[in-house]
Inverse folding.
């Protein structure tokens, strides 16, 4: 066997790939479910925290800043492992999927809160004043005037961060969630061949390249002249 | 003053930290009166205007507007504000909404009008400032003068009892000032009560009932524009008027 043939046999072995394709497809479905759940929860909670923070209630803001900084400082893998392996000691046993969903959602929420908050701050004070001077309440001014502008400002950093954290679904393999990486690694050890890993990488590309392109489209779609 | 004032300010003080910006302002505005406030920059004239609808929180004093004590605890300031239109130096149009969207937002969310009703009222307000054909333009597609007129329409649409203007033409190119002043003049002729902070002395001379000169947080003198501009009683007023007139 030449080097090239050995490479092809180990990484692009069609026979092995065919055998583990169903498992990787199954893993992809798990990854998709986990990713969508993380995006919805993370962005939702992040936005909610930013809105609460804009009301400027001191103790509440301290709590939010503390939590957010904590979650931004910890590696996502550590958050996930803590939820999965530490919580059972206080009687709370999460499944791997729930631990991964909760952990990644918390991390995304922390980053999203900071980004939304920066966006809200970046909206000119005159916008608040104009809105309030027509009799809109604080909440109405925030919702109808400030937030739409803040969200547009935040879309580029937000899509980047969302993609980065959603790719972290691969970390769920550590807590036994049967997602793409878990299936690929399992296939690799059973077959003694690296091709299932190639298949896994391909699956990530198939899932995340459209996501990246969609992010780019959203960025241009919502960019507007000031 | 022959009619009871619609706006009655007494002993108004405002501190920014240790800075004493307003030092006891007494100001009464009668219905349909146009009061013009002039003064050097930093004199507190914009702060005074912004205290009138509590965009700035006054530190001391009383403000009565249309029978309501604005500084009473529990006063519904949002209900008061919809009666007090405000126009800003920097327009502050909502960039994500069209001209019509800018004008109808408060109609829909504050006055709870239906979309159709709000749009009819919004178009009427835009027509009053001569911009009915720009209803669907976004602020960035409008000139500064047009933006300021949309901002006026946004306030007018709520049918306020008084309009507050905070240097409405200061951010405009000279050739665009006239269109905004023309709208203000038409409002005056329609009987709108107005308080205007501005350096447009010619406009003041032509349209104001009363000119108030403020310096260092105090009213130095006030009176009809003919007298304030031609024969001011106070040397500081004379100096200020001469300097401003020289610039124009």
């Amino acid at each position: 066997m030449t080097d090239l043939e050995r490479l092809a046999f180990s990484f692009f072995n069609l026979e092995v790939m065919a055998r583990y394709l169903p498992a990787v497809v199954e893993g992809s479905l798990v990854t998709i479910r986990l990713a969508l759940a993380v995006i919805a929860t993370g962005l939702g909670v992040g936005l909610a925290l930013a809105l609460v923070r804009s009301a400027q209630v001191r103790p509440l803001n301290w709590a939010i800043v503390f939590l957010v900084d904590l979650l931004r400082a910890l590696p996502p893998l550590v958050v996930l492992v803590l939820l999965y392996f530490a919580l059972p000691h206080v009687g709370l046993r999460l499944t791997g999927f729930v631990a991964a969903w909760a952990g990644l959602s918390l991390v995304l929420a922390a980053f999203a809160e900071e980004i939304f908050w920066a966006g809200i701050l970046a909206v000119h004070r005159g916008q608040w004043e104009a809105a309030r001077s027509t009799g809109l309440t604080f909440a109405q001014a925030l919702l109808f005037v400030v937030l739409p502008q803040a969200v547009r400002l935040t879309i580029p950093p937000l899509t980047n961060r969302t993609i980065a954290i959603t790719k972290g679904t691969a970390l769920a393999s550590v807590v036994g969630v049967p997602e793409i990486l878990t299936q690929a690694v399992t296939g690799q050890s059973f077959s003694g061949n690296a091709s299932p890993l190639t298949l896994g990488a391909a699956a990530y590309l198939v899932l995340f390249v459209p996501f990246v392109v969609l992010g780019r489209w959203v960025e241009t779609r919502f960019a507007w002249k000031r | 003053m022959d009619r009871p004032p619609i706006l009655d300010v007494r002993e108004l003080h405002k501190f920014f930290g240790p800075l004493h910006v307003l030092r006891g302002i007494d100001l009464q505005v009668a219905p349909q009166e146009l009061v013009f406030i002039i003064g050097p920059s930093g004199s507190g004239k914009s702060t005074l205007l912004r205290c009138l609808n509590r965009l700035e929180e006054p530190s001391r004093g009383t403000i009565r507007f249309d029978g309501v004590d604005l500084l009473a605890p529990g006063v519904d300031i949002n209900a008061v504000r919809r009666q007090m239109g405000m126009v800003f130096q920097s327009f502050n149009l909502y960039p994500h909404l069209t001209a019509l969207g800018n004008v109808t937002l408060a109609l829909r969310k504050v006055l709870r009008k239906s979309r159709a009703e709000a749009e009819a009222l919004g178009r009427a307000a835009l027509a009053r400032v001569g911009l009915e054909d720009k209803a669907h333009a976004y602020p960035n597609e409008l000139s500064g003068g047009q933006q300021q007129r949309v901002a006026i329409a946004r306030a007018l649409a709520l049918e306020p009892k008084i309009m507050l203007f905070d240097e409405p033409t200061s951010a405009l190119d000279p050739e665009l000032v006239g269109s905004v002043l023309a709208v203000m003049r038409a409002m005056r002729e329609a009987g709108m009560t107005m308080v205007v902070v501005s350096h447009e002395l010619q406009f003041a001379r032509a349209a104001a009932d009363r000119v108030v000169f403020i310096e260092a947080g105090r009213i130095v003198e006030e009176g009809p524009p003919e007298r304030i501009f031609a024969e001011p009683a106070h040397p500081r007023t004379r100096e200020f008027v001469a300097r401003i007139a020289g610039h124009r």
Notes: The CA atoms of residues 18 and 59 of chain B lie 12 Å apart. Chain B is about 40% helix and 25% strand.
